[in-house]
Amino acid sequence: MTNSSKTSASDKPLDVNRVCVGVVTGPHGLKGDVKIKSFTANLKDVAAYGPVTDESGEQSFEIRIISSNQKGLVAELSGVNDRNAAEAVQGTELYVSRDKLPALDEGEFYYSDLIGLAVENIDGEAIGIVSLIDNYGAGDVMEIELEDGGTEMFLMSRDVVPEIDLENGRIVVNPPTEIYADEGHADEEAEEE
Asked: Is 118 in the same domain as 180?
């Protein structure tokens, strides 16, 4: 698995030729510097592929990394010269053309490739579709829009996600029994009444 992005399904068709490599999380200081959450394996690589664009492709930025820490990066974006401009780009997702990214080895993929794929359990029963991949600090998580409504999140590990079949557009999950333990318990209580 190659981490490349927080991505989500939307009504807008995905541009498969671009990959989200980061997002501006806010301003830093008064001179227009910004904080960036990088979605690349090496955090500083968000600036390694040349100019980035916003989701629409209309705004383009050169990135110059100023510093990095466990919370993310502090950087300068071309054209962002003061705090007001930095505030205006807060929340902007940063995209690069897929052809500027390193070639993937066999069996590797970008997380953005998973959005919209069908998800089934190990018995082949449909569960839903992938709507989001993100990392909230404890590892990468896949969010699934469930067939019967609602959402469920699964840790992106080989134990929980044993198969990703891009060719056939599906992902197999093997949820830990703890996830469904409460549902079974609720059913048992209903039977006792």
From this structure: yes
Residue 62 belongs to domain spanning: 16-100
Contact, 160 vs 173, CB < 8 A? yes
> What's the predicted TM-score (pTM) here?
0.70
For 70-74, the CB contacts below 8 A with 24+ separation are 71/35, 72/25, 72/35, 72/36, 72/37, 72/38, 72/43, 73/22, 73/35, 73/36, 73/37, 73/38, 73/43, 73/44, 73/46, 74/28, 74/33, 74/34, 74/35, 74/36
Stronger pLDDT, 109 or 54, i.e. the higher one: 54
Residues 169 and 117 in one domain: yes
For residue 91, being part of any structural domain is answered with yes
Within-domain flag for 106: no
